[in-house]
Each structure stands twice: as structure tokens, then as C-alpha cells.
Amino acid sequence: MFSGHVNVCDENNPLCSLRLRKGGLAILWNNKINYSITNLSLPVHSDRIMAVRIDSSDSDPIFVINVYLPSTNYTTDQYRECITDWQITLEWLSNEGTVISCRGFNGQLGQQWGQGNDRGRFLGEFLIEHNLFSTITSDICGGPSHTCIPGDANLDASILDHFIIPTDTYHRCLSCYVHEDHALNTSDHLPITLVFKSRYTRNKVLNHNVRYNWNKSDPTLYRQNLRSLLSHMDGYTINSKSDLDQYIIDIHLAINKAVQVSIPPCRFKAHVRPFWDDELKDFHKEQMSLRHVWIGHGKPRDNNHESYSDYKTAKRRFARMFEDKQQTFYQKEYEKVENDINMDIKTLWKRVRPKRQPTSGTAITVDGITYKSQDELCEMWRRHYQALLNEQASESARYDSNHADILCKQLSDIKQLSNSSDDPTHTLLEPFSINEIANTCKGLPNNKAPGYDQISYECVKYGGYKLYEHLTDLYNNIIKFTHVPQVLKHSVIIPLYKGKHKPRNLVGSYRGVSLTPTLNKILEKLVLNRLKPWLAHKDFPPPLQHAGREKSNCVCLTYMVLEAIRDAVFRGSKVYGCFLDIKSAYDVINWQGLLVKLWNLGIKHKLWNLFEHWLTGSTAHISTNGEASSVFQISRSIKQGGLLSTFYFLVFYHDIHSFVRRGSTQPLTFHNRDISSPTMADDTLLLSMTPRGLQTMIDNAYMYGRLWRLEYSPSKTKCIVFGDRKLKHIDNYQWFLGDQRLEIVTSYNYLGIIISGDGSSQARTTTMANKGYANLGMLKASGFHSEGLSPLTCSNLWQRLLIPSMLYRCEVWDDLPKLEINVFETVQKRIGKHIQGLHRRTHDEIVRGLLGWTTIAGIIDKCKLKFIYKMCSLPPDNLIKYMFLSQLYFIIFAPQTVDMKSYTYSLWSVIIQHDMTGHVLSYLTGGTLENKKLWSQIVDQAILTHEQRRWKAGLVDKGAHRFLRVHESLRPSVLYSVIKCKMECRKSLMNTVRLLAYPEKLDNADICTVCGQEYTDTVEHYVMRCEGIVDSRSKAWDNILDTLDCEQEVQLLSSTDQVFLDTILSKNNSLFNDIDNYIEFCCIAGNELISLMEVMR
Predict the structure, then answer these.
(1) Which residues make Cβ contacts (< 8 Å) with residue 316, sequence separation at least 6?
(2) Max alpha carbon distance in the chain (Å)?
(3) Measured between alpha carbons, how far is 253 from 250 in angstroms, rounded to an integer?
(4) What is the mean pLDDT of residues 596-609?
(5) Please, which residues bridge with residue 496 across strands?
(6) How far apart are CA 1012 and CA 920, in angstroms?
(7) pLDDT tens profile 87-114
């Protein structure tokens, strides 16, 4: 495809055969290519813009816009008008597909935006604001470094032609090349080629997959309609399993019918400009009407011509209105984030995170065959999951067939015993009460994906008492007949991309998540609630399994592992570890083995029969890109996403710990307590103090897999050596899983934290800091910048979303070197300047002070102090609590026996630093500790006191006395609170903030170029003292004083110069009557002072 300007011949000109006039646009394409190309009628009418749409059966639409912006022969205003037309066209097309803009932009762009001319600066700012970039100025572009060679030898070559694409499509730009000039090229512009990769279509929505808008409806009507429908089912008698099957179908039908007549569906619209309304439409019609008049008059371009003048006026009026509407819309979007800032983290992430690009439509390659079309992909996924969820004959060789025969015999014996009247778990299946059902249903979350039956949690949650009555009858009859209806055992499997930059075209990069019917999930929740107290008395899960354990989590487990390793290394031993990876852990769970282990755990007779019937006979189908596959049977696996799935896996895997220790020499222990095989669900770590001992444990794990039909992945299973700081002997080690040699690594991402064999933290610091920058880039589209959301809202987003992500698991970080702390501080400093629009040389303490931020070190200390409370609040018999308290006792009373670099010692150092030893000693001696809320308040106050002292010392050291006088404490600026409430004052108040933050000089004084005087404080000199701008300053002061009454004016003018300056820089004192008076004063002062500074420039 080609685009550019063409030579246009005027048919009415008799000399047209002799003289050609340059001008106009063209897009040419080869008519043999396999795409449908459509010329577009654009929302703007400009002879400088044209566009086509490129469609193909297997790709998103691509739009090519040919833009020819005015040259320097035209005014800057005309250039800006064309930019506005281009912007409108971009926004009109951008959400429907990918937009590529090309041709002559007549703005010189250098390596940095604005290194050319005024048009280049304006064009560069436009690209940054709209997340666009030019491929010509990027590293991927080859050929000459210019695109235009002027005919005038006195002019330099320049870059005026560009391919401009969205920043997030950079990876799809395969190549770009500027071709050398050719003898046949009569233009002074060089040809440019761009090779751009298409992508596959977005997800379609099945017609029957209707989602209902519960947020914009009154559940009362739904409840009334459902009650009416269910009343016809009162007195329904269930005498058999077939009656039970029909009963649940009738309940399904009643719920679906009530929803359809009561709740409006969510309407999914094609892309429209969301801010387009009738008023804007009328302005557009007026512009179009006047344009037709202008065209009828022969398109005159004389400003004195009435039709041309009227058309241009209407066009500018429409453009202003368009921009105002757009700005208002985005402001409302920002307000939603402002209002949602205090909601739960998960919902907040959904609000601000850009929508992810669909992934399940990506072409997949299996055994050298690539599947592209929707039906091919759906069938491929069906074959894949049907094979994965049913044991194949080819797998038998990998497993122990004798053990399989033993399991079959045990299962047969269990089935004969399962109908015995002696049932120790009969109390777990006592009839459910209606209150139990109602409380469970009312506690269900909103906005969760339903199963194939389209019954969402809201359908049950808002169903009312009549529905709860019928659900009580349903579930009690399921228990009575130990029969789970088939409609509850069918699931929809959706392949979801795992992320983490895995190849999108490989099956292994996707995880199949099962959507089960809501009524099944409620039954799972009811049974699980009955099981929890019973399991607590069974010492289940085992001590080294931390999934499903009360108050324990990944952070606690990571602490236990790292502290045990550090303690062993301190005592002179190396520790050898192996991170096991199970292939498709949940998908290959063998039901026979699971049922045997359920029986051995003590779940017998009727409850065992229920589980056995619940598992067997399950079915599923695949849903991807709006396509549904045929239904297939399942003979193994536990559903990823099922409420009972974690419980099932913990039962199946609970004996791994005792199995892997068989015959192992010197497994890792802590004070004679076993730490050798800590697990978090299927994440298993084997730890030994000898290489031979580790190999024995690996061999045992391999044998365990053969017995219980689990397969460990040799390529993903890694080994590591702890305590070998110089890593000199790492090549001497080797471990095998079966006959496959395992890779030995120097660091590993364990439960979300990168741990290194030599104890260093540099790799983790670099990774986490980059994560902070990446999240910043992601949030920019949500208004996370100085011109979008208010600074306070941006600050809250940083503290609630980005900080926890960047400092993930910092509770178990050891003391970071100052250099690594500075890496994180730099991230926070840059983000603070970004969201406040401050100069890059603004002092760090000023950046943090305006937002009330503590240092990164302070944030880490706070996390550690709160983690200490969590450790102390663990159950008394918890292994992690025992380890923590033991180490703490030794640190306090026998410090010579403990490694001063241990993780517990790092926690103790934080306690001492923030004067909290009394609280901890009180707990150690008396066993009493403040409640969680009070402890949190004590920690917050301790951190704030320490940080404020440090912050003030930093300001004094850097000579920021003016700032400290105005902003006296480490808290958010009052101006930012005003901006959040009154966004219309934003620009004026931000002027005041930037003047307040302007740095003072410590050493060498500058000499004023206007009055010749020396000064150290730029703001004070120009606002108060410079003799060269007396008239401008007097005028500015008059405008500022006009906001005050006579008494206030006298009080301000009679104050010292320092008080006067501090007041106009926003220091709130007794001068002001109320907040509105203060706001008006600060707004006028900000505008006038900025204008005064501009005069100096």
C-alpha cells in the first residue's frame, strides 16, 4: 500500500497539459491482496486527511490515515486546526482497531520532541499526550536519518514524514526503512516502507451468553417475580433421584425467567465516542451545512468571503465544543477514580488498569500445525482438554501399574464398607437449616462469572426467602439421596493466558479455568463450612503444608524457609534445595487415589458416597472466542476455580512430606523440628544439608509421582545451593529427576520473592524496581499524571496499588544496602515529580513533603512491624511462630548464638529503631499484645515520628528554609486537598505549588540579569526585591490584594517580608476568614506570581 501527495490536473485550466500543480492526497493498494479495503467517510471534512479501513477474516481492522499538515506557508493556527481534525479522526477510529497515520506532518522531530521548530514541539507534545510515537525516529528505522531533501541547497535535510502508531503496538512494527533517493523519484521526499504485523480477532460473545446489569436495577422486582414463579412449585414431592433431577431443572428455569423479565441486560455497543451528544451533533450539522454552502460557492479561501468565514467559524466552534465535551467526559472518568479510591484493592485495580488485550483468540501451534480460525481453535482446545482430563493409555508406562491395581482393590473394599451404619462423619451431613442457606447466599460476592446455566451469584443473593426455602429442600434431598444432579456436574472450561511473557502461541501458556454452576458452588461452600471445624481436630493440613492454614500465608512460609536456611548457613553448613514443579497439578489428580485418601482421612460412609458421586460422571465443554465445543466426559482432575478443589488437593498431597523424608540423610531442621519439605498447595521445596540427602528426597518425590500418577517437570524443576557465596563449586553438583539431570540456578522466584543462593538481593531489587516503572506506565492512561487525576488521588493510587506491588513481600527482605534502597527511592522520587508536574531538580524532601510520603525505607519498616504482629498472633502450635519467638529470645538474651544478618534480627533492628522494644518485651514476658487496630496505630505513629524528624533534617541540610516555613509537617499539602474538591482551581493552585517547591541555593549566589543584584532564592528575589520589574510586581500585588478586605490588606502589608512571601505562597494563617477566602487568595497569587516569573524570562 502506498500513500502520499499526487499531481492534480485542473480540467478547467487550458494549460493543464503543460503545467501540473502539486497537492492532494492518495492511498494506493494492490488489488490482488487478500484484504477488503474500504474508503472511509470521516467525521471531519478536510482536504488534508483521508483514511481507509483494511479488513481480513483473521485480523482486527487496521485503519490507515493519510495526513498532510500545513507547511510554514500557513499560520500556526491553521496547523493546529489540522491537528485537531487529525485528533478527531484518531479518536473516531482508535477503539475499533489499530490506526496508522502517515505522510507529511511538516514538523521536525529530533531525538527528543521539540528539537526542531515550533511545529515540531507542538507535534511532539501531541504524540506524547495521545500515547503515539513515530517509527521514523525510533531505533527500528533503517536507512538515511532524514526523509526530505529540499531543492534549495541552503536548507538542511529534515524529518518531516512519519509513520505514527500507538505506543502499545510497538511490538507489532516489524521493520521501517527510509529508502535512498532514486533517479525516478521527482519528489524531494524519500520513500518510506513500514512492515506491520496484524493480530487476530477479539473475543466474540455468544448470543446466549447474556450478562445482566444488576447495578442499574432494583432487585425487588426480580424477587417478586421469582417468588411468584417458585410458588407454583410449593409442595413438590421428591421421592426419587429422577424427581431431584427435575426439581433442580425447574428451579433453574424459574430463576432464568425471573431474571429475563426483571433485570435489564448489559448492552455491549460497538465503539462510539462516549462524549458525543445531541448538542455536539447539532454543532456538527451546522458545520456540515455551512461547508456545503462554501463548496457550492467554489471553495473560496478569502477570509472576506462570507461562506468561507462562516464555515471556518462554525468549524472552530465545533472543534472547541468537541474538545470541551471530551475534556468533560475524561474529567468524569477521573472523578470515578477519585470516588473509588477508598474501595477494596481488587475493585480499584479493575477501575484503573487498562483493559487487557484478548488472548484466547491467538493462533496456537500444536505438533507443527497452526490453528487460526475460531472453530479450529475451539476444536483444538476440546481435543487438548479431553486428552488432559482423561487418562491416556500412553501414560501407563510412566506410572506404577501394581499400585494402580492396589488402589482399585482398596476402592472396591471401601465401596462395600461405605453403606455401613457406623458413620463417624454423620454429623457433617445433618440437614441444612434455612438460616444456614440464607447466610451463605447473602455473603456471596457480586460480579462473578456464572456457569453454563447463566445463573450468577446475584440471582441467588437477591432471590429472597422463597428461593432459600427451595434451595434448602434441594440440598437436603441431595444429602438424603447422596445424589448430585448431572446439571451441577457440568462445567465450562475457558483457556486463560498465564501471562509473564509466555509465548502466546503455545498450549502450555494457558490455564483452563472451570466455570461451574452457581448452585453447585453454594453446595460446595456449605459442605466446606461443615468440614473446617472437623478438619481442625484432625491435624489437617499437616504442619509443613501452609495452604488452607489459619492465619498463615505465603509471606509466613517464606520467612520460615529463609530463616531456617540462614540459621543453618550461620552454623557452617550449606543447604541444598530443589523446587519441584508438577505438570498440570490439578488437571491430573487421579480420582481413585483421592477417594482412597478421603477415606483414610476419616471421611467415610454417607459423606464419602457424596464425594464419590460428586466427582464421577462429570462433563465439560470448551468456550473460547464465542465458540462452544461439544461436550466431553471427564475421568480425572479437580476443577481449577472450584471451591472444594483446594481441599481435594490438600487431601491428595498431604502425605508427600513423610514420603520424601524416607531414608534421607540430614534433612533441614530447626531446633530438631523438620523444615525439609515446606509446601504451599502444589509448590514444593525440598531442603537437605547434604547433596546425597537432597538426591534421596528427589528420588522419593519421583517415586511418589509414579505411585499416585503425578508427573514432575524436569525442565521446570530447579536446584539451588545456599551458603556457597562465591559459587565456586556449583558445577560439581548434579541432581537427577528420574533419568533427567536438573538445572542448578543461582536464584529462583519462590512464592513471589526472588531468593539467591549467595544471599544477595540485587537481582530482586532490580526486578521489583522495574515493576514499579512498568506499573507507572500502565496507569498513565487512567489519568495518573499531573494533568489528570488530582495529586492526592494519584498519591493514594501509588500508596495503595503501586507500592504494595513494587515492595511485594518486603516483610521478609533482609536489610538492604543503601545503594539498593536508593534504587527504590529513585522510583518514588520520579513518580512524585510526575504526578505533581514538578521540575526534575526539585529536592526529594520537597517532593515527598507535598504529598506526605514517607521514605521507601520507612514503608518497609512499617510492613515489617505489622508483620511482627502477624507472627505473634499465629496459633500457639504453629511452627512458624515457634521459630520466630525462638530466634527473638536468642537475639535478646543470647545474641552471640544468632546470626546478626538473620531475618529475625532484621525485624528486631526495626523494633529498636522505632522505640517499640517495650511492646515486644511485654508480649514475650507476659504473652499480651495490643489488638490489631491499636498495634497498627502505634506503628503508624512511630514511623511518622521517625520520618518527620528525618524529613526536616533533610530540608535543613539542603537549605529549603522557605518551604519548611510554609509546609511545616510531613503531611499532604492543603492545596492538594482543595484541588481534589475544586478541580477548576487546579491550574492556579498548581502554579503556587511549583513556586513553593522551587529550590533555593545553598552556596553560590546568582546575579540577576535585570537589576544586577545577587540572590540565593529566585522566588524571593523576583517576588519581593528585584528593582527591574517594580511596575509588574506592583500590578501583581494589587491584583492579589484585591482578594482581601481592608483589614486583611493592612495586616498583610504591615507584616515582615518573610511573612508576606510565606502567605502568598499558601501558608494558611489567621489572616483568612474562611476557606473560600483562602482558596481565592491562593488562586490569584499563583497566577500572578507565575506571570511575574514569565516577565523575567
Answers:
(1) 81
(2) 110
(3) 5
(4) 92
(5) 511
(6) 62
(7) 888 888 876 778 899 878 887 765 443 3
